[in-house]
Amino acid sequence: MPKTRDTDFVERMGVHHTGDIFARAGVIFRETQCSDTGIDAEIELVHDGYASGQLAKLQIRSGDSRLDLSSKTFKFSDNLEHYEYWARYTLPTIGVVYSPSLDTAVWFDLSEQSRHIVSTQGPYTINIPLTNNSRLDVKNISGSLSDIIESFSIQPASLSAVKEVSVDAANDHIVGPDGLTKEQAWKYLTNVLLTSDSASDVRAEAGYRLSLYFPAVSEELQKFFVERISNATDKEIANIVIAIQDALSSEQDDVADLIIDLLSYMPYPVEKLKEIGYKRIVSEEALEALIQSVEVMSQEFDSDFRNEILNIYRTVDTSKD
After folding, report:
1. Between β-strands 50-62 and 93-99, what pairing exists: parallel, antiparallel or unpaired?
2. What does the CA dihedral 33, 38, 40, 42 come to, rounded to 10 degrees?
3. Phi first, then psi: what are they for 274, rounded to 5°?
4. Contact 263, 273 (CB under 8 A)
5. Is 295 helix (H, G, I), strand (E, B) or coil?
6. Residue range 212-264, pLDDT digits in tens
7. Would you report the helix, strand and coil content of the chain in percent, each value rounded to 5?
8. Assuming Cys at both sites, which of 1, 115, 159, 252 could form a disulfide with 247, CB separation 3.0 to 4.6 Å?
9. For residue 183, what are the contacts with CB-CB under 8 A and spacing of at least 6?
C-alpha cells in the first residue's frame, strides 16, 4: 500500500486554512494545480460583487518547524533563484506561513521582500513576528493586503511586457509575461488599459490586443471584460480614450477603431462618452479621440456635439478671479 507523509497533511492544512480566511474576507481563492514553480495559489479581489481582475499570487508554507514558539516568530526561507522569480513576477506575490499548533498564519509582501533580498544578495530567511498586522485574518486581508494588490494594479506596465501577450485562436490559448495563464494575461491587459498609470502607447497596445483577441477567447473571459467595462469609472473610460488618442496620433486608425470597439460593450456607450466630455474628465489633448469615438459608434458626423464640447473646453472659468 502507498505510504503517506505527515508533511502532506500539514501542507494541506496550510492551504485549506489560507483559502478559508480569504473566502471569509470575500476574496476569490484559486489553488494552483502545479505548485513546484514557487506559486501555490491565486487570489482575486471582488468589488461590488464583480471579480475585479486585481490579482495576486500566494506562496504558502506550513509547519511548526517554521515557527519560533517562544517569540512567536514565523520563518520563511528559500534560495536566490526563487527570490529572483518572485521579484520579477508581473503580479504581486504574497507569502503565507501557517502553524498547525497555533492554527494561525501570518502574511507578508513577498514581492517587496524578494526585491530587497535580490538587491542585497541575502540573507535568504524572512522573519515575520506574529502581530495584529501580520496575522492572516479578514481585517488585514480587507485592509493592508488588499491595498498592496490595488496599488500594484495601477503601477505602469512596460510596452515589452504587454507585447508578450499573444493568442492562439485555434486553441483559445493566451500566453502572457512570466508565464501567466490565459485568464491572468487577459485580466492583466484589462487592468493595464483601465487602471494602470502606464504610458499612452502601452495603454493603446493593451487595448489593441484585447479587441483583436476578443473573438478568440472563451465566453467566460469575454464576460469578464464586458462586466468590467460596464462598471468602469469615468476615469477608467477616459483612460481608454487616451489609448485611442495615442493610436490616432501615431496614424494607426485601424488600432483606434479596434479600441473604440471595446467601448461599445458599455451600456449606452455614446451617452456615456458624451457625459464624461461634459464633465471635462477627458484631457484636452484627447478631445479629438472622444469626439471621433462618439461619431464612429453613432455612425454619423455629430457637428452639434463637436461644436458643443469644443465650446465647453474652450470656456475659461473666471468665477474665481
Report:
1. parallel
2. -100
3. -60, -40
4. yes
5. helix
6. 989 888 899 999 999 999 999 999 999 999 999 999 999 999 999 999 999 99
7. 55, 15, 30
8. 252
9. 220, 221
